[in-house]
Amino acid sequence: MGRNETAKDYPKERCVELVRAAVGIDTLVVDEIKGAMPWWSTVRLATRYGTPDRHVFLAGDAAHVFPPWGGFGANAGIADAHNLVWKLVHVINGWSGEELLDTYETERRPIAQRAASISAAMNDERGLMRLNTISIIPSFLQLIPYMTVGYGYNSSIIIGDDDGSSLPTPKSYDLCGRPGTRIPHKWIDEIDEEKVKEYEEDGEELIEPKSTLDWVDPCTYTLITFGEDKKGNSWDQVFKKALKEENPSHFKRPINHINYTKETQYLLIGLDWKKDFGLDYGNALLVRPDGFIAWRSSSKDPITTEFASSLLSILHYK
């Protein structure tokens, strides 16, 4: 529908001509027009994604409307649900405070806003998709990262370095363990410790490839630790201790622990901790249930129960 037009501008005769033009047969017999509804190719973005009392949340087309080309609205809607559901689960089950729900809008709305502005630029003056290849290709290239894995979150539950240098920006397309981005996918071969001797004799026949994405627990945080510091302190142990001290009954939903040391890292083939995750020996990653990294330790972070407790508090994790 053109600008300033209404449904009254589309009587049956005009609708029949439009049907014939769409089909490509000028003599097509159209017996009946069941109905005609107005539609504009436009962009709409909700001012808020939830009510102040945190009882109602908007997602998908209720939160944002994009032009139909590319399926960007559907992809953004799925990502909305992916971001919101685990937070609802945590709050409803008492594992996190209600403040966690506020981060849904903080994280998802800027992504939709950026995608909306780019997709809107793909409309021509009639509200249809621009067919100019020179202008349309750059728009698609800008949109793709926001619909796949090239975007990141900045919110109160994404903990970066003190100077903020580790947090993602609109141009942070790399997945290398950066807080606020997705955990990198790497194919790894994990050998059963009891079968190491057989592996050394038979080689690859005993290897069962898996993805690092399989480490993520969809219901709770996952702590990935790589060894311990020079004093023998391990993030794995201090987080377990912090959880017990904060809430002794919390182990109804413990943090998922993935722990490798110098003695066990040989069981993994195909993973470079420094290159793939940005981890030195003794460091750790804390990954959210949606696969986004909440925190990556640095050499400045003390491996203590107090520090682990402060991180859990920032994440609204009870």
UniProtKB/TrEMBL annotation:
User: What domain of life does the native source organism fall in?
Assistant: Eukaryota
Against SUPFAM superfamilies, the record matches this protein to: FAD/NAD(P)-binding domain
Cofactor(s) required, per the database record = FAD
Q: What Pfam families does the record tag this protein with?
A: FAD_binding_3
Please list the GO terms describing molecular function.
FAD binding; oxidoreductase activity, acting on paired donors, with incorporation or reduction of molecular oxygen, NAD(P)H as one donor, and incorporation of one atom of oxygen
Where does the record place a coiled coil?
none
FAD-binding domain location: 4-116
Alphabetical keyword list: FAD, Flavoprotein
Regions crossing the membrane: none
Q: What is this protein called?
A: FAD-binding domain-containing protein
Starting at the broadest rank, the lineage of the source organism is:
Eukaryota, Amoebozoa, Evosea, Eumycetozoa, Dictyostelia
